[in-house]
Amino acid sequence: MSLIVKIGKKGKKLVKKLIVPAEKHHLSYTRRIERIKTDKRICAMTFDDGPMDMPAAPDRFEGRSLTDVLLDTLAEFGAKGTFDVVGDTGENYPDRAGKVGSAAWGGIRFDHYPDIGHDGSGGAANNDRLIRRILAEGHQITNHGYRHIIFGKKPFVYGRREYLGSVDRAVDDLNRLDLLMRERYGYQIAMSRPPHYVDRMQDGFTSYDVYDRLGYQYMAASFDGAGWLPSTLRDPDAALEAEVDAMAAPMRRALEQDPDFFCGQIVFQKDGYNMAKRTPVAFGLRKQLELLNEYGYRVVTVAELMEESPFADLGRDDPLFDKLYRLQKDRAVAYSDNCLRLDDAMVWGELAMLIAPKKEAMSRRWARIRRTGKREDPYCGALEWCMEQGLIPKGTLSGGPVTALPGGLFGPVEGFSRRQVYAAYQE
Q1: HEC letters along 196-211
Q2: What does each C-alpha distance from 17 to 96, 197, 198 come to in angstroms?
Q3: Does residue 119 sit in the same domain as residue 170?
């Protein structure tokens, strides 16, 4: 079954490439953070689905919980991790386990972490000690959903899986974990990764809208640490060895070909079982950290990575970096894929997103989606507000090139590339 999942992932990418139109990125308050631009040897390591208060499998750590083993390993190398935690999957019943080795190994209708029937050993709500240890040792916590329910349909892999389906249900689910972390630990979550990377919902909204509402950024990843897929070998010891090698070998090859390969990258891992109910991450993480250490990398939290640069295509050496770093905190200046594309011509919708208050742009667009139940122009709310204020001519098309700038908001400008407009904008 794991082979089917692998083939399915490749097939889905091929279908998207050949049949589905390329995704049109747009300016967004929430950006998908996969990596950032830097020439420093720093990268981030993320761990989904924990914390897990059950031993590694096989247990070669005297019964210590998997999350403790990961924390011990990170501490040994002076590394900081980003733990993308769940709240509690104990409410995800009635349910039954799927076939071991399949994507539904932990549940047909829902996910159960760390395993079906053992929900009380997983999640932030049940593991105060582990959460406090993660925070005390300087690691980051992000929001992977309270019950880890996918936002929308994913029929290819999870055809029988229950899903949330609406922005309000998704916000409510994530807000439960957000509230738990604030009230119990005084910790403010700033990022989230949607369960199984399902973004679109049936009411016209997406995960980006969910994160807009919560003030999050979308934490993705640029390198798959590979600890979640099981080997097809029948012998358990040989299978574990193959799984650990699958974590280390690709990283070794990448570094040998380009020692700077991991600069600014985010690595995906799992704080839990793979589909064969083994935990190769308990053993492979050490090998990965040894490799990164050998090449002079520091492993930092995603938050620290974004302090270096919050963008995928702009580093600290650019003259506009400081200004755009400030603007991105409450203005949509980067696209949903976290690129700025400063050499492109600016269009009216993008100009409106720079000018309009976030609250106005969001609330007006959300109201339109609720009326129609469809995906709307991402700039419609900002354009509407700007037109009402007389800052942009009425009837202006969102995608038309900017030919003039409203007085009082901009200094002198020559040309209307995105770089030139941002340089002229007066904060």
Answers
A1: HHCCECCCCCEHHHHH
A2: 35, 18, 18
A3: yes
Asked if 101 and 2 count as a contact pair (C-beta separation under 8 A), the reply is yes
Residue 286: domain span: 26-306
CATH number at residue 54: 3.20.20.370
By DSSP bridging, strand 42-48 and strand 298-300 are: parallel
pLDDT band at 156 (very low <50, low <70, confident <90, very high): confident
Q: Six-digit token pair at 93? A: 């019943």
Same domain, 270 and 406: no
pTM: 0.94
Confidence at residue 352, expressed as pLDDT on a 0 to 100 scale: 97
Same-domain pairing of 240 and 267: yes
- For residues 37 and 131, state if they share a domain: yes
pLDDT at 268 over 60: yes
Quote the crossing angle between the two packed helices 207-214 and 358-372, to the nearest 10°: 140
